[in-house]
Amino acid sequence: MTKIAPSVLSSDFSQLGREIQDVDRGGADYIHVDVMDGHFVPNITIGPLIVDAVRPHTELPLDVHLMIENPDSYIPAFAEAGASIISVHQEACLHLHRTIQLIKNSGAKAGVVINPATPVDMIRESLHDVDLVLLMTVNPGFGGQSFIPQVLQKIEQVALLREKQQLRFEIEVDGGVNRDTAKLCADAGADVLVAGSAVFKQGDRKQAIQEIALAAGR
Ligand code: DX5
Ligand code: ZN
């Protein structure tokens, strides 16, 4: 079953609690929370305070995507605030193994993310340590960008490595996911589809989630 993780980046931030409840009732599996620091990516969003504020509004896992430099300095605060899964960019981690252990020791599940231009080889040694591998299908920083189809090969590559090594992590994709690209990603081996504008910019979020899930073959 393909999971859908609506990204609150495209939601109405003035109504964040209600927006999250809307997609929770609409059939979302995770709530994807994009954290940007204005350094690792050219945009600034939210911090642990907001994660803490939204935590009581849903029982769904909060899937926190850290697009920040020095993630080690903030991981404990995000875990404390209620993040269920914390994903860090390989490109932002000099000592990735240590950072993954820090996430786990903080009590959250650990994810690793790579940008479209980063080869899968860069995370090969970490695959047995993580609960989630997130493959960016856009350059991180903004919602509403176009899907980069070259990443489909990387999804297949990660799915094959997982099978060969008998590992259990989930494969998530993030960026430009809509009804058309959802099927491509699911066919390539993605388990979790992040969708921002394709869910939150639609009037009927339940219908939007159902349509993406249906397209993915759920
Ligand atoms: C981009 C973020 C995404 C973003 C996706 O840097 O990581 O999660 O919200 O937005 P859409 O689905 O609109 O491409
Ligand atoms: Zn994201």
UniProtKB/TrEMBL annotation:
Its EC number is 5.1.3.1. Substrate binds at residues 7, 65, 141-144, 174-176, 196-197. One of its GO terms (cellular component) is cytoplasm. The keyword Ribonucleoprotein does not apply. GO terms for biological process: pentose catabolic process; pentose-phosphate shunt. A divalent metal cation binds at residues 32, 34, 65, 174. One of its GO terms (molecular function) is D-ribulose-phosphate 3-epimerase activity. Its cofactor is Co(2+); Mn(2+); Zn(2+); Fe(2+). Pfam families: Ribul_P_3_epim. Pathway: Carbohydrate degradation. The active site is at residues 34, 174. Keywords: Carbohydrate metabolism, Cobalt, Isomerase, Manganese, Metal-binding, Zinc. InterPro entries: Aldolase_TIM, Ribul_P_3_epim, Ribul_P_3_epim-like, RibuloseP-bd_barrel. It catalyses: D-ribulose 5-phosphate = D-xylulose 5-phosphate. Binds 1 divalent metal cation per subunit. Transmembrane segments: none annotated. It comes from the Bacteria. NCBIfam families: PRK05581.1-4, rpe. Catalyzes the reversible epimerization of D-ribulose 5-phosphate to D-xylulose 5-phosphate. Belongs to the ribulose-phosphate 3-epimerase family. This is Ribulose-phosphate 3-epimerase. It comes from Lentibacillus salicampi.
